[in-house]
Specification:
The protein is an alpha/beta fold. The chain is about 40% helix and about 15% strand.
């Protein structure tokens, strides 16, 4: 008689035959960078999302590296709105990349315009006309995103991460990088980024909530798996080096399908709403926080993700969690 319980009879056997683990090196924290000095604030409180000034970012980078992290994700939150602040070679985002020089961390720099545009959209808004619907102007936005990416790479970012979901931006970014002799920079494409309800705390921390309309015209319909594969195939063809799937838990099927179809590293983003659901349920005494964190991260890895961007990541090098 087949008895699979034999593999689970003791704690040692459970550990011995565990198929999927979550090494600390595979967890990537995300930080929101602001101007000033000595700034270290969780916003919203209890969200796991931290706004840091450049001096605090460097200290956090040292702690992360000492705890086993190999990469960090960076989002800039500028004081002044305007696309010119995004494309400037001394932008807050560029200075954040430089603040981590010499620490041995791979710097993953977000490439988007939502924190810079006055209306919070990920590109340049067009009010439309007699024969055009209002919406983000794809091609104007792509040209600006390529400038942003080249600036971040020139500042030292090892990975540039376009999260805007404009069509053709991977090819434009790859061309801009090559033109400046920055061809070794990795491009992480948010190929399957859903128009999700899970981004609320992020938009608070990044100060990037849209002032009008929504992002369903360029972010993906969360109901569409086949379309996600078309988006991914297009970005791989344009030169993406890694693929991002976001959110993670509601798209485990897409992570698995991407792993099956494409021989390329996959990053999954356990987003702010996913963090909030676990954190708040644990705070209410409904679930065991440590076990829930471990289980969700393991499921994301089991689906096929090589790396996971997660706001839980700092807890692992603090020693409060062990995976």
């Amino acid at each position: 008689m087949i008895r699979n319980r034999r593999y689970r009879r003791t704690e040692s056997l459970l550990k011995l035959f565990t198929e999927t683990d979550v090494p600390i090196r595979t967890l990537v924290p995300a930080y929101f960078i602001v101007e000033g000095t000595g700034v270290r604030r969780e916003i919203p409180e209890g969200s796991g999302l931290w706004q840091l000034s450049l001096d605090q970012l460097r200290e956090e980078g040292k702690r992360a590296k000492g705890g086993g992290a190999e990469a960090v994700m960076l989002f800039a939150v500028p004081e002044e709105k305007g696309v010119k602040y995004a494309t400037a070679r001394d932008s807050l985002a560029c200075r954040a990349v430089q603040a981590l020089d010499g620490l041995g961390l791979a710097r993953m720099a977000d490439v988007c315009l939502c924190s810079y545009t006055p209306d919070g959209h990920c590109g340049i808004w067009d009010d439309g006309g007699p024969h055009r619907h209002p919406g983000v102007d794809n091609d104007r936005s792509v040209a600006l995103l390529a400038e942003v990416a080249a600036g971040l790479a020139a500042a030292g970012a090892e990975l540039v991460c376009p999260s805007d979901m404009m069509d053709g931006r991977v090819a434009a970014i790859r061309a801009a990088l090559d033109a400046e002799g920055l061809g070794d920079t990795l491009v992480v494409s948010y190929a399957a980024k859903m128009a999700s309800a899970m981004y609320g705390p992020f938009r608070h921390a990044a100060e990037s909530a849209p002032k009008h309309g929504d992002r369903r015209g360029y972010q993906m319909n969360a109901a569409n798996g086949r379309e996600a594969m078309r988006e991914t195939a297009a970005d791989v063809e344009e030169g993406a080096d890694l693929i991002m799937v976001k959110p993670a838990l509601t798209n485990l099927d897409l992570i698995a399908e991407t792993r099956r179809r494409f021989d390329i590293p996959i990053i999954a983003y356990q987003v702010s709403g996913e963090y909030a659901m676990i954190h708040e349920a644990a705070r209410a005494g409904r679930i065991d926080r440590a076990r829930a964190v471990k289980e969700t991260l393991t499921s994301i890895r089991r689906a096929g993700a090589d790396l996971v961007v997660s706001y839980f990541a700092p807890e692992f090098w603090d020693g409060r969690q062990l995976v």
